[in-house]
Amino acid sequence: MAVRRRQRRGPGGGRALLAAVLLCVWGRAAAERLRYAIPEELGRGSLVGPLARDLGLSADELPARKLQVASAGKKQLQYFTVSEENGNLYVNERLDREEMCGESVTCSVSFEVLVHNPLNVFHVEVAIEDVNDNSPAFSKPVLDLEIGELIPPGSRFPLEMARDTDAGSNSLLTYQLSSNPSFSLSMKEKAGGKKQPELMLERALDREKQSSFDLVLTAVDSGDPERSGTVLVHINVTDANDNPPVFSKSVYEARVAENLPAGSLVLRLLATDADASSNGRVSYSFGSVPDAVRALFSIDSETGEIRTAGLLDFDEKNKYILGIEATDGGGLTDHCEVHLDITDENDNAPEISILSLSSPVPEDVPAGAVVAVLKVRDRDSGENGQVSCELSGEAPLLIVASSGGSYKVVTAGALDREQASEHRVTVVARDRGRPALWSSTELVLEVSDVNDNAPVFEEAAYS
Which of 94, 120, 113 has its CA nearest to residue 49? Predict the structure, then answer.
């Protein structure tokens, strides 16, 4: 048996990763789907589900049916394992939802399992449910505010929002402020249902009596049990900066193409301040933004221009929300959000992944028998990620689409080893991008002999 592999790039460039696994059987097989849900952080050996039972396999069948996880993705193979004794699916290593899926609302791991004698392939999806294992966190230990002594009571000062990398209700935050008669905490509704904490001045300040205040802001999530994080709010009382900077928008939106070179302009922010001199001079900076995002974007403190600092990849993350802070020379601030949608380019060729292959195949195998199982996927989205698969070459074989991106190669008619002892076909996977990207691999199927020809004398009679 021989397998040859080729990788090609479309006219527009891009990457192609190619692998193929082919499996020989003599019977029809239909792919099915199973879905389980487990909480993250389960220990190794924790039960995911009775896989064999859910597939209709009894304990007596397990040795012959050879139930196994068979996925092209190395990570998927590390996460789960199937017991040879009872056919149950178990956790094989620690699952951290935040490491696996980031801030995505949903998180799951998909893979295939194979059974033999006869062969069948099943698509399994395990949803990883969030547990409240992360506390809210602020980007810095101290928030510095400067408030003029002439600022009237009732004035509000936006405070940094904490981040919680958990999902769902575990990431919904409320805020508390340590008690002080000069200040209270109020909340401002933001886009998407978020709440911005604001410091409210309750009574006039007198710098000559007290020049600074230290308060503790606490962010509490909605998990059970709840988790919290704190930041020190240091307030310096100054003279007469009575106008904060104001952004022209509370939310800025932009679309950014992936693979832009570093230094490309994304958008320009604008905040104005009615004060004069240094009190009216505005500088821009990131607010509560993860370090990973700071590595991808930069902001000019003077012009408010946001530019790319690293390579954006739609397939890794397609949306970013940046918190931006404008600060004037007197220390007053305003905040806005920048919502960036990363647009996809067709930069990934389809990947033909190996599940299993066995050769040779007997020449008396019936028509319609499955001789190979393939997995084809494309990391792009939309039409760029829609893939069609075909066979190229003269052979009595057909390729049939199955669920979850799987394909089966089946016999289209009778095989005759005396006429052809092997068949060569090329599997071609092509996406619908413009220009289209494609990958291919050659499948060589050997045909083994069965005793289907009786001996024949060269002559009917001898004398």
Answer: 113
